[in-house]
Write a structure and sequence with these properties.
Layout (H helix, E strand, L loop, with lengths): L1 E2 L3 E3 L3 E3 L3 E4 L4 E4 L3 E3 L11 E4 L2 E4 L3 E3 L12 E4 L5 E5 L3 E17 L3 E15 L4 E5 L3 E3 L7 E2 L5 E5 L15 E6 L5 E5 L10 E9 L5 E8 L13 E6 L7 E4 L1 E3 L4 E4 L4 E2 L1 E8 L14 E5 L4 E4 L6 E4 L7 E4 L3 E8 L5 E11 L6 E3 L2 E2 L4 E5 L7 E6 L9 E2 L5 E2 L5 E11 L4 E11 L6 E2 L3 E2 L4 E2 L1 E2 L13 E6 L5 E2 L5 E2 L5 E11 L4 E11 L6 E3 L2 E2 L3 E6 L8 E6 L5 E2 L5 E3 L4 E11 L4 E11 L21 E3 L5 E4 L6 E4 L7 E4 L3 E8 L5 E10 L7 E4 L5 E4 L7 E6 L2 E4 L3 E4 L3 E8 L5 E10 L8 E2 L3 E3 L3 E3 L1 E2 L7 E5 L5 E2 L5 E3 L4 E10 L4 E11 ...
Parallel strand pairs: 1-4, 2-5, 3-6, 4-7, 5-8, 6-9, 8-10, 9-11, 10-12, 11-12, 12-13, 13-14, 13-15, 13-16, 14-17, 28-33, 35-41, 43-50, 52-58, 59-64, 65-71, 73-80
Antiparallel strand pairs: 17-19, 18-21, 19-20, 20-27, 21-25, 21-26, 22-23, 22-27, 24-25, 29-31, 30-32, 32-33, 34-36, 36-39, 37-38, 37-40, 40-41, 42-45, 44-48, 46-47, 46-49, 49-50, 51-53, 53-56, 54-55, 54-57, 57-58, 60-62, 61-63, 63-64, 66-69, 67-68, 67-70, 70-71, 72-75, 74-78, 76-77, 76-79, 79-80, 81-82, ...
């Protein structure tokens, strides 16, 4: 059938084998259904329609023929019925242009169709049901609005294949999806029209499935929607969601909404492979709960902070770019995380981390002696408020702790203790300092010495000791007082006493920890005789009478004479005959009952008297070697015995009249003249050498004495850059500079030296601290502040009392003003400081009343060390009540005695005490004195 004009079919048109041709400009109006049935047996053609014009149908389209219904490539089919229409059949239906222009009703698609050019919705909507429309590469959906749209009550969809890389302004296939990126031809886009429950709280009734090719990607997209598709979701809440696993999990992409054009746009993406896109509520009711903790958290430098977003199995995006549930950070900053569940619902939280510096925990302490309190100086530092926790490391207690800034602690016994200081800031950052502190034991002072004689060299054997296991460097220093005004700092000194008597020797032992002990012992010095004798001149074979002039104040003496010729005597005044002339060294030894022995030696000349009376001085040779002389190194001095014609015997065995002396020493000569008379003389030759220091300091406001040794008949010349100053062996200077000395000996040799006098670079300066006003009877401490550290101290309190301690205590017994002075020395220079101390009365003194405070005048504790009996000698200035106690090293009282005394000797039985160190304390008038003793 050939249609060349407007043809009307008033009812359903069945085609079982007719070939219908609709020419251009021709319209076929079917007022009913069009059904394409299988070809009948007597038909000449397959049932088909070649449409180059226009087909209008008010009813359904059904193709059951097994052939294509429309064979054209540019004709239009218009469905314009006023009731619902359907497209169905079991054969393919392909439209070039399909137009809906219905006054009422919907077109229901009951089979898949293809539209090769335009699918336009002039009026009316199309329900896909469970079928799809294939737009292929060229099909385009047009004129879709809220009232004229494609929707689906089933799983129907529109299918479009991208022909080439599209423009971002192009709605692909008219489906309402705009893509930008690297998109190749062949990319398949499907538009579905059902709501997806798996995203957010459910999506709108539109979704796109995009199947990208190879490495293609979507960078930006625009999603168009219709109001009826919103399913009650407010437009302002819409967001684009994507899924890359076929709708199992969703990711919210967000987007910018243009409600005027019903388009939401998102950029900055990288979507690849198979992507599902839809719109859903950005504000999910089932969004995950995200809690990173307090908004602001402080943490300590070096710590790692673990941030946990919770919600296992969800997806995570941290501000650091990490995508795990838990991250670890170590830097200050603001950190945020977005957590998305499978539905694309997301929530976020933010936390600010502030790095706080770890405080520096440190402290100092000094070594103390047992019984003293250890003070700790806290030198810790850090930001914010700091708290401190001390553990003093005392294993004997659990209470050796403190929270003070600068605590004190008394340890029960000597030892090394590890002290722990924990310093914590207000931000919870802490540091621990461990340091060993030492509590030193007291040394045990002890020495032994034997009674001795006047003038003897007495050796003191130091037996002092200290436990060195606590401080390996615990050396000792010693201070001896020999009781005669002489002192020593040697370990084992020797000393000679010039007078007899009983001397109290005191030894103070100080460890390098500053712990000290004092012991006193008495030594008896016995009188030594003063030995001398005279003798008569004699010739050989004549008696020599010796007169013993030895003296001693008391006691008997024993004498031993050595006559120098191998004979001896014990007589007091012996008589001796020498058979040969010559010189004899005669020695007299005198011994007391205590073994004190002294001696005297004289040279006795026995003349021969063979040719004359040698006892007559006129017949004796005159021998004079002169005064003692100085000699320079490498030079010699000529000694002349004179008396020509005599015979000579020098101390070196030579027999010449003249001797050249090249070494220092004592030289003698014996001269025998022709009469056989003998005379003798000796001379001392000393080295004319000296060595001045290169540099010497001069004390502030003082003169300095420069000195070289004195040599008989030597010439001296001191000079400076200004000229000659002195011709003596000593020179007193008052200014700095360079000084030269020249010494010319009697032999003519010359010695020179130079010395530089400089100012004291660190002059000793006396300073001290003491209260200016005190009351009578107060114990006043004087605290030395001198600098640099003095070598010695000399205090004078202005009331006749002095002290040589560094920080002494003193009690003024009467009111008045006293000039207290301190003289300090660095070993060469001194400095003095004076301060006036005003001493007030505590109460009005009655006329003629004497305020007398109890003072110890003398004490002695002996023997020490001991085992058995311990004696205390004590003398007070008046009768007073006294308490005497003995304590062990732990401070436990072992014996207490209360008594009243002025002078007494008190004995204690310590034989039952264990070996060790003990303390004896004397309490009187609110004062105390402590002694330390050792029980063996």
């Amino acid at each position: 059938m050939l249609c060349t004009a407007l043809v009307h079919a008033q009812s359903t048109l069945y085609n079982e084998g007719a070939a219908i041709y609709i020419l251009p400009g021709t319209s076929l109006n079917i007022q009913g259904d069009y059904q394409n049935e299988p070809r009948s047996l007597n038909a000449n053609f397959d049932p088909q329609v070649t449409n180059v014009g226009e087909v209008r149908i008010t009813g359904d389209i059904l193709n059951n023929s097994g052939f294509e219904l429309f064979l054209d490539n540019n004709g239009m089919v218009i469905m314009n019925g006023s009731m619902d229409q359907a497209i169905s059949g079991n054969s393919q239906l392909t439209f070039y242009d399909l137009n809906l222009n219905k006054s009422a009703g919907t077109v229901n698609l009951q089979r898949n169709i293809s539209v090769e050019n335009n699918l336009s919705l002039s009026n009316g909507s199309l329900n896909l049901n469970n079928s799809f429309i294939d737009l292929g590469f060229s099909g385009v959906l047009e004129l879709e609005t809220d009232n004229n749209r494609i929707y689906s009550t089933g799983s129907g969809y529109l299918n479009y294949v991208v022909n080439s890389n599209p423009s971002f302004s192009e709605s692909l296939g008219g489906l309402g999806l705009y893509l930008e990126g690297d998109i190749s031809g062949g990319t398949i886009i499907q538009r579905l029209h059902t709501s997806t429950a798996s995203v957010s709280d459910g999506s709108i009734a539109r979704m796109y499935k995009v199947q990208l090719i190879g490495g293609d990607f979507i960078q930006s997209l625009k999603f168009s929607y219709l109001t009826p598709e919103l399913n009650g979701i407010a437009e302002s809440d819409l967001a684009i969601y994507s899924s890359s696993d076929n709708g199992t999990t969703w990711e919210k992409l967000g987007g910018i909404i243009n409600t005027a054009s019903n388009i939401i746009e998102v950029t900055g993406q990288n979507l690849t492979n198979a992507v599902w896109l839809t719109l859903a509520d950005a504000n999910c009711s089932s969004a995950p709960t995200v809690d990173l903790g307090e908004p602001v958290v402080n943490f300590c430098a070096g710590d790692n902070i673990v941030l946990d977003a919770g919600n296992p199995g969800n997806t995570y995006l941290w501000s650091t770019g990490e995508t795990t549930q838990i991250i670890s950070v170590s830097s200050s900053g603001t950190y945020s995380v977005v957590v998305s569940n499978q539905s694309g619902c997301e929530n976020s939280d933010t936390i600010q981390l502030i790095e706080r510096q770890i405080p520096s925990s440190s402290f100092t302490s000094a070594i103390v002696c047992i019984g003293e309190t250890t003070s700790f100086t806290n030198t810790s530092s850090g930001e914010g408020n700091l708290t401190h926790s001390w553990n003093f490391g005392d294993p004997m207690t659990d209470t050796d702790i403190s929270a003070q800034m600068n605590p004190q602690y008394e340890y029960p016994s000597p030892g090394k203790y590890t002290v722990e200081l924990t310093t914590e800031s207000e931000y919870g950052c802490s540091d621990i300092e461990l340091m060993d502190v030492y509590v030193a034991p007291y040394p045990i002072a002890a020495f032994s010495v034997n009674n001795a004689c006047m003038g003897e060299n007495v050796v003191f054997q130091n037996l002092s000791d200290v436990d060195s296991t606590i401080l390996s460097t615990n050396g000792l220093s010693f201070s001896w007082d020999f009781g005669d005004g002489k002192t020593s700092s040697l370990q084992n000194p020797s000393h000679s006493y010039l007078l007899e008597g009983v001397y109290t020797v005191s030894l103070e032992v100080v460890s390098n920890a500053g712990c000290s002990d004092v012991i006193q012992e008495q030594i008896q010095i016995y009188e030594a005789p003063v030995v001398d004798f005279d003798y008569t001149a004699a010739c050989a074979d004549e008696p020599v009478f010796f007169a013993n002039n030895t003296t001693i104040s008391s006691g008997g003496l024993n004498f031993t004479w050595d006559f120098g010729d191998g004979t001896s005597s014990s007589d007091i005044h012996p008589e001796k005959v020498y058979t040969n002339s010559g010189t004899y060294q005669v020695t007299l030894d005198a011994s007391t009952n205590f073994g004190c022995t002294k001696s005297a030696t004289h040279t006795v000349i026995i003349q021969s008297c063979e040719f004359g009376d040698c006892l007559n001085a006129e017949n004796q040779p005159m021998v004079d070697l002169g005064a003692d002389k100085g000699i320079c190194n490498g030079e010699s001095i000529s000694l002349d015995a004179g008396n020509l014609g005599s015979t000579y015997l020098w101390s070196d065995g030579s027999t010449n009249r003249i001797l050249n002396a090249v070494n220092s020493g004592t030289y003698w000569v014996e001269v025998t003249n022709a009469l056989g008379c003998l005379a003798r003389d000796e001379v001392e030759i000393v080295d004319l050498t000296f060595d001045l220091p290169d540099t010497v300091k001069i004390c502030v406001n003082s003169n300095l004495l420069l000195e070289v040794p004195f040599f008989e008949k030597a010439l001296y010349e001191w000079s400076s850059l200004s000229g000659v100053i002195s011709s003596q062996n000593v020179l007193e200077v008052s200014s700095i500079g360079q000084y030269f000395v020249t010494v010319e000996g009697s032999s003519g040799c010359i010695m020179k030296d130079t010395i530089n006098v400089i100012n004291d670079p660190k002059p000793i300066t006396a300073r001290f601290l003491a209260s200016s006003i005190v009351d009578v009877g107060d114990t006043l401490q004087f605290i030395d502040l001198s600098y640099p550290s003095p070598a010695s101290y000399e205090w004078s309190f202005g009331d006749g009392v002095s002290s040589f301690e560094s920080d002494p205590y003193h009690v003024y017994l009467t009111e008045g003003s006293y000039d207290a002075s301190l003289i300090v020395s660095d070993g060469q220079c001194n400095s003095t400081r004076i301060k006036t101390i005003t001493v007030r009365l505590l109460r009005q003194q009655v006329e003629d009343e004497v305020l007398l405070f109890t003072e110890i005048l003398k004490t002695g504790l002996y023997p020490n060390p001991t085992h058995g009996e311990l004696n205390l000698d004590i003398t007070l200035n008046k009768q007073s009540k006294v308490q005497i106690g003995i304590y062990d090293s732990w401070g436990r009282a072992l014996e207490i005695r209360d008594t009243s005394l002025e002078e007494a000797t008190i004995s204690f039985d310590v034989s039952t005490f264990s070996p060790g160190v003990y303390y004896l304390k004397v309490l009187f008038s609110g004062k105390s004195k402590v002694f330390r003793f050792v029980n063996l």
